[in-house]
Design goal:
Helices cover 42% and strands 19% of the residues. By secondary structure, it is α/β, with parallel strands linked by helices. A 5-stranded parallel beta sheet has the order 2-1-3-4-5, with helices on both faces. Strand 3 (49-52), helix 3 and strand 4 (79-83) form a beta-alpha-beta unit.
Length: 120
């Protein structure tokens, strides 16, 4: 069964690379480049995982993750942050606060990202 991943990032180049690699590895991929759009898509379709940037137009990644985890129907979907944000004071606490399942820092090694995805 093909696993379906929603990738949310506002950087077109990053989306292109992630889409290409994930599709090559057999995943079905949908994308969003803005927070409200991401929430519409995640509510409309069934996903096995959400890869989510933190800094986005509209809702930020923390807000999106909070909404996903607060919704009984969406709560089981693993959310993995992909972020260029450096791990500042309080980052780990914020990730735990919104119940994200993990994170990967940009620029990331695709194989490391794939291993993280396979955990879920």
């Amino acid at each position: 069964m093909v696993k379906k991943i929603l990738v949310v990032d506002d950087e077109p180049d990053i989306l292109k690379v992630i889409i290409f690699r994930l599709q090559k590895d057999g995943f079905e991929v949908k994308t969003a480049s803005e927070g409200h759009q991401a929430m519409e898509i995640v509510r409309a379709e069934k996903f096995d995982l959400v890869l989510l940037d933190i800094t986005l137009p509209g809702l930020n990644g923390y807000e999106i993750c909070s909404q996903i985890k607060a919704d009984e129907n969406l709560k089981p979907i693993p959310v993995l942050f992909i972020t260029a944000s450096t791990p500042s004071e309080g980052f780990q606490e914020r990730v735990e606060q919104v119940n994200a399942n993990g994170y990967v820092f940009k620029p990331f090694d695709y194989d490391a990202l794939l291993e993280k995805i396979k955990e879920f």
